[in-house]
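Backbone description:
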Amino acid sequence: MALAVDSPCDLPSPKVANGKKYEYLDHTADVQLHSWGDTLTEAFEQVAMAMFGYMTDIESVEPTSLEEIIATGDDMESLLFHFLDEFLFLFSADPFFIPRFITITEFDMENFRIKAKGCGETFDLKKHPQGTEVKAITYSNMQIHNTPDKHECYVIIDI
């Protein structure tokens, strides 16, 4: 569920300062996103940024507006799926929102619920280079690793 937020964009941007914590892996006819972080929360944030980074150059996005989403699931995989799908919907429908960064503000791993904010702007072909359109998130080979020494996500996106 996407929630419109009228307040100015005042989210911190440590992910931009610390560099990207994701990569793209080859996959037959699709792309696999691999993200990691110091926590599972950061790994989720990074996999969402990887998805948007595949669609445009994130560095060209100005953090001028704020969008908020709420995602729920039945388990961690469905939570990750719905988290990404909510942000993909914001990009695919009005306001055609592309975030510069994403911050998860609430992450309930027991009840499988995430509340997150994206800071960015409306996608504009005159300003943002067009990458590859992401058609859908898939469950295919989805992996979430959350151990004391490893916090990673693998997600295949349909392009």
Notes: The first helix runs from residue 14 to 18.
